[in-house]
# Entry
Amino acid sequence: MTFDHVAQQVDDVAAAVEWYCRTISGARVLYQDATWAFVEAAGTKVALIRQGDHPDHVAWRVSEEELERLAAAHNRTIRAHRDRTRSFYIAAPGGRWIEFIAYPADSAYSGGQAT
# Structure
Protein backbone atom coordinates (compact mmCIF):
# COMPACT_ATOMS: atom_id res chain seq x y z
CA MET A 1 0.00 0.00 0.00
CA THR A 2 1.32 3.43 -0.94
CA PHE A 3 0.01 6.97 -0.82
CA ASP A 4 -1.63 7.86 -4.14
CA HIS A 5 -3.40 11.23 -4.07
CA VAL A 6 -5.45 13.81 -2.24
CA ALA A 7 -8.78 14.88 -3.73
CA GLN A 8 -10.29 18.31 -3.25
CA GLN A 9 -13.73 19.46 -4.32
CA VAL A 10 -13.66 22.69 -6.33
CA ASP A 11 -16.31 24.94 -7.86
CA ASP A 12 -14.46 25.29 -11.19
CA VAL A 13 -12.12 22.51 -12.29
CA ALA A 14 -10.47 24.53 -15.08
CA ALA A 15 -9.81 27.51 -12.80
CA ALA A 16 -8.38 25.22 -10.11
CA VAL A 17 -6.04 23.54 -12.62
CA GLU A 18 -4.87 26.93 -13.85
CA TRP A 19 -4.22 28.05 -10.26
CA TYR A 20 -2.21 24.92 -9.38
CA CYS A 21 -0.13 25.15 -12.55
CA ARG A 22 0.56 28.86 -11.97
CA THR A 23 1.23 28.55 -8.22
CA ILE A 24 3.00 25.22 -7.71
CA SER A 25 6.38 25.07 -9.42
CA GLY A 26 6.65 22.15 -11.82
CA ALA A 27 2.97 21.21 -11.64
CA ARG A 28 1.74 19.30 -14.67
CA VAL A 29 -1.69 18.12 -15.75
CA LEU A 30 -2.00 14.34 -16.01
CA TYR A 31 -5.67 14.48 -17.00
CA GLN A 32 -8.38 17.11 -17.28
CA ASP A 33 -11.99 17.32 -18.39
CA ALA A 34 -14.94 19.43 -17.27
CA THR A 35 -15.66 17.26 -14.21
CA TRP A 36 -12.23 16.48 -12.75
CA ALA A 37 -8.49 16.79 -13.21
CA PHE A 38 -5.32 15.09 -11.99
CA VAL A 39 -2.40 17.43 -11.32
CA GLU A 40 1.04 16.24 -10.23
CA ALA A 41 3.87 18.21 -8.65
CA ALA A 42 6.97 16.92 -6.89
CA GLY A 43 5.71 13.35 -7.09
CA THR A 44 2.39 14.15 -5.40
CA LYS A 45 -0.97 13.98 -7.15
CA VAL A 46 -4.00 16.16 -6.46
CA ALA A 47 -7.38 15.25 -7.89
CA LEU A 48 -9.52 18.34 -8.42
CA ILE A 49 -13.11 17.17 -8.43
CA ARG A 50 -16.40 18.89 -9.11
CA GLN A 51 -18.52 19.61 -6.03
CA GLY A 52 -20.75 16.66 -5.15
CA ASP A 53 -19.21 14.07 -7.51
CA HIS A 54 -16.83 12.51 -4.96
CA PRO A 55 -15.99 13.42 -1.37
CA ASP A 56 -12.75 15.16 -0.42
CA HIS A 57 -10.45 12.26 0.40
CA VAL A 58 -7.01 10.74 0.75
CA ALA A 59 -6.33 7.80 -1.57
CA TRP A 60 -4.11 4.80 -0.95
CA ARG A 61 -2.93 2.72 -3.90
CA VAL A 62 -3.19 -1.04 -3.53
CA SER A 63 -2.86 -4.06 -5.80
CA GLU A 64 -6.00 -5.41 -7.42
CA GLU A 65 -5.87 -8.40 -5.08
CA GLU A 66 -5.59 -6.17 -2.01
CA LEU A 67 -8.47 -4.03 -3.26
CA GLU A 68 -10.67 -7.12 -3.44
CA ARG A 69 -9.60 -8.21 0.06
CA LEU A 70 -10.19 -4.77 1.59
CA ALA A 71 -13.58 -4.36 -0.09
CA ALA A 72 -14.72 -7.69 1.33
CA ALA A 73 -13.36 -6.82 4.78
CA HIS A 74 -15.25 -3.49 4.78
CA ASN A 75 -18.34 -4.85 2.99
CA ARG A 76 -17.93 -2.31 0.17
CA THR A 77 -18.63 -2.46 -3.56
CA ILE A 78 -15.73 -1.71 -5.90
CA ARG A 79 -16.49 0.83 -8.64
CA ALA A 80 -14.78 0.92 -12.02
CA HIS A 81 -13.91 4.40 -13.28
CA ARG A 82 -13.68 5.67 -16.85
CA ASP A 83 -9.87 5.73 -16.63
CA ARG A 84 -10.02 1.96 -15.80
CA THR A 85 -8.96 2.40 -12.18
CA ARG A 86 -11.10 0.64 -9.58
CA SER A 87 -11.80 1.86 -6.05
CA PHE A 88 -14.07 2.22 -3.06
CA TYR A 89 -14.40 4.70 -0.19
CA ILE A 90 -14.69 4.21 3.55
CA ALA A 91 -15.41 6.74 6.27
CA ALA A 92 -12.42 7.70 8.39
CA PRO A 93 -12.21 9.45 11.77
CA GLY A 94 -13.00 13.16 11.85
CA GLY A 95 -15.63 13.00 9.12
CA ARG A 96 -13.01 12.28 6.44
CA TRP A 97 -12.96 9.74 3.62
CA ILE A 98 -10.34 7.25 2.50
CA GLU A 99 -10.23 5.79 -1.00
CA PHE A 100 -8.51 2.51 -1.78
CA ILE A 101 -7.61 2.49 -5.48
CA ALA A 102 -6.08 -0.07 -7.83
CA TYR A 103 -4.51 0.72 -11.19
CA PRO A 104 -4.88 -2.16 -13.64
CA ALA A 105 -1.97 -2.49 -16.08
CA ASP A 106 -4.08 -0.94 -18.84
CA SER A 107 -5.30 2.06 -16.83
CA ALA A 108 -4.42 5.59 -17.90
CA TYR A 109 -1.95 6.06 -15.00
CA SER A 110 -0.69 2.54 -14.34
CA GLY A 111 3.00 3.39 -14.10
CA GLY A 112 3.61 -0.17 -12.99
CA GLN A 113 1.92 -2.34 -10.44
CA ALA A 114 1.19 -1.19 -6.92
CA THR A 115 3.36 -2.74 -4.26
About this structure: The longest helix spans residues 13-23.
